[in-house]
UniProtKB/TrEMBL annotation:
The keyword Transmembrane helix applies. This is Uncharacterized protein. Keywords: Membrane, Mitochondrion, Mitochondrion inner membrane, Transmembrane, Transmembrane helix. It is a single-pass membrane protein. The lineage of its organism: Eukaryota, Viridiplantae, Streptophyta, Embryophyta, Tracheophyta.
Amino acid sequence: MADNREILPPQYDVNAKWDACIDLTVRRFVYSTLGGAVGGLLLCRSPVTRWAAVAFGAGLGIGSAYTDCSRLFEGSPATAKLASHKIVETPAPQDGQD
């Protein structure tokens, strides 16, 4: 039996975007938390500062994942603002012309 579903363009496939966002968030959270833990073990003596390094790493991971996911869903005001401004190049005057 043939599959009659239409193939959606990538910009409209919300399920794929959510899958990518969840994957990105979990990876960045785990890797940055582990990086914070290693950094805390190497650089800090007190258990409180070690936990602070772990929390800082986790925050960095979640923040960077949030930024990339908002770009993926095109919901970030900063990217919309930057995308709306276009740089127009004007030709430089040649010798003898003013």
